[in-house]
Design brief:
Blueprint (H helix, E strand, L loop, with lengths): L10 H4 L74 E3 L2 E3 L12 H6 L6 H7 L3 H8 L3 E5 L22 H4 L11 H9 L2 H34 L6 H23 L7 H4 L11 H12 L9 H6 L10 H31 L1 H5 L2 H27 L3 H21 L18 H8 L3 E2 L4 H7 L6 H6 L6 H17 L8 E2 H13 L5 H6 L3 H6 L1 H16 L5
Parallel strand pairs: 4-5
Antiparallel strand pairs: 1-2, 2-3
Helix pairs in contact: 6-19, 7-8, 7-19, 8-15, 12-14, 12-23, 14-15, 15-20
Protein name: Cytochrome b5 heme-binding domain-containing protein
Keywords: Membrane, Transmembrane, Transmembrane helix
GO molecular function, one term: oxidoreductase activity, acting on paired donors, with oxidation of a pair of donors resulting in the reduction of molecular oxygen to two molecules of water
Length: 548
């Protein structure tokens, strides 16, 4: 499978405490037999002979009681019990200090500040039209040494609940190759450099923005009509329009996340939150920097987040998850934002955003969206139309949730997915994503699907600024993919193909604890542990746990 052309230092050079990032060769999963388990086995890991034996329980820095972490990876604990990290970004196994680049980054301060203490090889390779040029620029910030395990945060500086137990970013981050001039990604980018194509992309981006602005006006008009003249806006029509408009505006926010985080985009990106699913202030990191470059790997947090509801007994799943997400809307996501403010103050505004001026638009936009969403609820409540708000909330939440998980095989465990036998990152991305069809019109579906209709192009070229630009690129990419033997499969219907699978998986299956313990229907729903899990899940929503 794909590896970087510049491997990490050999064990003899880097020391026995430095196993290096794993490549894409999946071996026996810990805990599934054949190697060291995650929870107590010791001995060499069969997937990576360079690793040291696993420590007791394979614990990490995010466990209770300030456990100093995975001794097998060689990190020394810091003053607070967490990892002792250096001021480093890792690229192709080498260490760089990009602190001075945070304020100068054309893509905005956020992406550089947020990727500190991570391996940014795949981020640079996937998010830049010319990563070779970026690589030359990086040499100005080189520390002239190989990366060490202390340089990489075990959980990517993200909440531990987003990852599987035992995950460590140094070991488990996939390593792809982006410097082969003969691969699909280079072929597509070469054609996109044509001046006519560049001009067309700019036109498509402009029309995308105009459409989004019109949808924002329609959104305000629909709510105002429902509240002022409800006879003109019956509840069934209001709910349908809210599903369509909130999904569409979230689609604009989706692409705003992938744009340079500069100027007004820092505020407008929060449109991604309007369908009650995500918190863009968190998602801009988890979606753009973890999911896209490392799709369907252990780094990809998207799968773990959207399968949390599977711990809930199936008959409780809809009401409990709905209450959980209402908790997010009411208080949870605001609490998470407050935590981010505190973290920013602790770490230092300059380290994350370059300056207070660079950070303020992010926070103003995020808190403004929270105020809008909860303000709408109280407006409907005070005007005596709260049931209309509840109806649209439930419909928007569940349709949007299924849309998000419909574009990948999230119902399949990562370890059960078929290996894609290719060293080409772009081909791998095409095999990991689906294009969706709702109405049949690609330009309409671009918004109805929250930006996920032209999903394959989006995954190969995540830096493109709009869904319309992706649509304009589809034919080109299909032609180039054919040259590499990749069949361009038809779009998959959301309503008649993906949605039935999602309903069966996420609503019809037993809870994970019931499957693991062999419980029948009664014990799945009425055991003390099931009731406790359900109650805790609701409370977690109001406190911001599970916020994405």
């Amino acid at each position: 499978m794909s590896i970087n052309p510049t491997p990490p230092p050999a064990p003899a050079e880097r020391g026995t405490a430095d196993p290096g990032p794993r490549d894409l060769e999946r071996g026996t999963d810990p805990g599934r037999g054949g190697g060291a388990g995650r929870d107590g086995a010791s001995g060499s890991d069969q997937r990576d002979p360079g690793r040291r034996p696993a420590g007791p329980r394979g614990r990490d820095f995010d466990t209770e009681g300030g456990d100093p972490g995975p001794r097998d990876l060689g990190r020394e604990p810091g003053p607070g019990g967490g990892p002792q990290l250096s001021n480093v970004w890792v690229y192709k196994g080498r260490a760089y200090d990009l602190s001075e680049w945070i304020n100068k980054h054309p893509g905005g301060e956020f992406f550089i500040g947020r990727s500190k203490n991570r391996d940014i090889t795949s981020i640079i390779g996937s998010y830049h039209a010319n990563p070779e040029k970026i690589e030359k620029m990086l040499e100005r910030f080189a520390l002239d040494r190989d990366a060490r395990v202390e340089d990489v945060h075990p959980k990517n500086n993200a909440p531990a609940f987003l990852f599987k137990d035992g995950f460590d970013s140094w070991r488990d981050t996939p390593r792809y190759r982006f410097d082969d001039p003969q691969d699909l990604l280079h072929a597509v980018k070469a054609r996109l450099r044509d001046p006519a194509m560049k001009a067309r992309m700019k036109r498509m981006d402009r029309w995308f923005n105009i459409t989004a602005a019109a949808l924002a006006v329609a959104y305000v008009a629909v709510i105002a009509t429902r509240l002022s003249v409800p006879a003109w806006m019956p509840i069934w029509l209001f709910v349908i329009l809210m599903v369509m408009l909130r999904s569409s505006l979230a689609g604009f926010g989706h692409y705003a996340i992938h744009r340079a985080q500069k100027g007004a985009t820092k505020v407008l990106v929060n449109a991604f939150d309007i369908n009650y699913v995500a918190l863009s202030f968190v998602t801009a990191d988890g979606h753009a920097l973890l999911h896209h470059p490392h799709t369907q790997s252990e780094v990809d947090i998207k799968k773990n987040v959207f399968t949390m509801m599977m711990d809930i007994p199936r008959w409780y799943r809809i009401p409990i998850h709905t209450l959980h997400k209402f908790g997010h809307t009411a208080t949870g996501m605001t609490m998470r934002l407050v935590e981010i403010v505190k973290l920013t103050r602790q770490v230092g505004v300059a380290d994350m955003y370059g300056s207070l001026r660079g950070a303020l638009p992010h926070f103003i936009g995020a808190f403004a969206m929270r105020a809008l969403l909860i303000g709408e609820f109280f407006l409907f409540l005070f005007l005596g139309d709260v049931w209309a708000w509840i109806a649209q909330f439930v419909a928007v939440l569940w349709v949007s949730t299924f849309l998000v998980v419909a574009s990948h095989d999230f119902e399949t465990d990562v370890d059960d997915l078929p290996e894609v036998e290719t060293e080409d990152w772009a081909i791998n991305q095409l095999n990991q994503a689906y294009d969706l069809k709702i109405s049949g019109n690609r330009y309409v579906d671009c918004f109805l699907s929250a930006g996920l209709s032209s999903h394959r192009v989006h995954h190969v070229l995540p830096y493109q600024r709009s869904g319309y630009a992706n649509i304009a690129t589809e034919d080109l990419m299909a032609e180039e993919a054919a040259k590499f033997g990749v069949e361009w499969l038809p779009r998959r219907s959301f309503l008649f193909d993906r949605l039935p699978d999602q309903v069966n998986t996420f609503l019809g299956q037993k809870s994970r604890p019931a499957q693991e313990q062999g419980h029948g229907f009664f014990r799945e729903h009425f055991s003390p542990q099931a009731l406790k899990t359900s109650g805790s899940y609701v409370v977690a929503g109001f406190t911001g746990i599970g916020t994405v």
